[in-house]
Amino acid sequence: MIEEACFISAVEAMQQMLYRLSVSLLRSDADAQDAVQQALMQAWAAKERVSEDYFRPWLTRIVINECRTLLRKRKREISVPLNEGVSPPPDMALRDALFRMPEKLRIPLILHSLEGFTMEEIAKSLRLPVSTIKGRLRRARSTLHNALYGKEA
Predict the structure, then answer these.
(1) 152 with 116, same domain?
(2) In this structure, are residues 95 and 103 in contact, taking their beta carbons and an 8 Å threshold?
(3) Rounded to whole angstroms, what are the CA distances from 48 to 4, 54, 62, 116, 127?
(4) Of the residues 87, 114, 138, which one is the last residue of a structural domain?
(5) Do residues 24 and 98 touch, judged by C-beta distance below 8 A?
(6) DSSP 73-128
(7) Could you give the CA distance from residue 46 to residue 68 in angstroms, rounded to a whole number?
(8) Are residues 97 and 80 in the same domain?
(9) If 85 and its partner were Cys, which of 29, 38, 131, 135 is the partner (CB 3.0–4.6 Å)?
(10) For each of the chain's 153 residues, which pLDDT tens digit applies?
(11) Which pLDDT tens digit goes with each residue over 33-51?
């Protein structure tokens, strides 16, 4: 069980990371904010069921699930431009390469390379074996390299 003060400080420390993760999945600023807010409400309601040691991967998993729920809802709605309201990163080629990458490769790459998650934390968050995460990271890096520099580089 995690105490309220510990919950609040952990969420404040993770808030920007959770937002960046949700933007990378949803590609919409407004949807990302909604997903993080909804995930935090769900986590707050269930905070008695998680230990401090598992909190970071647990909350990350809730955010990923909430993003996927929003994506499923979006499929049933009228299409809207995906990049609306998202401020582009400085390197547009990198952004485009990341968004073209399959989600199963993009999530571990973002969590590990940009957010500093360990492979074990990513494995817990995605409910996959560590060996699968290692393979996906290797494929994601290769895919990203090929997208940015071509197959000959």
Answers:
(1) yes
(2) no
(3) 9, 12, 15, 26, 21
(4) 87
(5) yes
(6) HHHTS----TTTTPPPPS-HHHHHHHHHS-HHHHHHHIIIIIT---HHHHHHHHT-
(7) 20
(8) no
(9) 29
(10) 888 999 999 999 999 999 999 999 998 899 999 999 999 999 999 999 998 889 999 999 999 999 999 988 877 755 545 454 445 556 788 888 888 999 999 999 999 998 899 999 999 999 999 999 999 999 999 999 998 888 654
(11) 999 999 999 999 999 999 8
For residue 49, the domain's CATH number is: 1.10.1740.10
Query: pTM to 2 decimals?
Result: 0.70
Show the tokens assigned to 61. 């998993």
Tokens of 18: 């959770």
- Parent domain of 9: 1-87
The number of residues in the chain equals 153
